């Protein structure tokens, strides 16, 4: 019944993941550009700088989707308010 509503949240995860892949690709090219100029910035620092907020958005949405599939009827979508609030900030 309520698992029909999870499709919108799954689409949001797919969208956020696609954007994150683009950010990681752009970060990788920036890292290579810095390396060619002999500027040493660790790749992990660049990924955290560029994509940390998006990573947290994906995790919040994933936790919400898991409540739809794994929790009982009273807890399904219990994290929807949190995930929605986190995505709008």
List the helices and strands and how they pair.
Blueprint: H1 6-36, H2 43-70, H3 80-88
Please give a structural write-up.
This protein is an all-alpha fold. The protein has three helices and no strands. The protein has helices at residues 6-36, 43-70, 80-88. Helix 1 runs antiparallel to helix 2 (43-70) and helix 2 (43-70) runs antiparallel to helix 3. It starts with 5 loop residues before the first helix and ends with a helix. The model has no long low-confidence stretch (mean pLDDT 83).
Give the amount of beta strand, in percent. Answer: under 5%
Helix content: over 70%
Largest sheet: none
* Termini gap: 30 Å
Q: How would you describe the oligomerization state of the chains in this entry?
A: single chain
Give the overall pLDDT as a whole number.
Answer: 83
List keywords for this structure.
89 residues, mainly alpha, 3 helices, 76% helix, elongated
Summarize the structure.
The protein is mainly α.
């Amino acid at each position: 019944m309520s698992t029909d509503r999870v499709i919108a949240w799954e689409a949001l995860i797919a969208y956020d993941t696609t954007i994150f892949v683009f950010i990681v690709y752009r970060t990788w090219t920036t890292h290579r550009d810095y390396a060619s100029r002999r500027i040493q910035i660790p790749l992990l620092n660049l990924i955290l700088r560029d994509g940390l907020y998006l990573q947290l958005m994906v995790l919040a949405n994933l936790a919400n989707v898991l409540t739809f599939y794994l929790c009982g009827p009273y807890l399904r979508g219990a994290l929807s308010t949190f995930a929605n609030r986190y995505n709008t900030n």
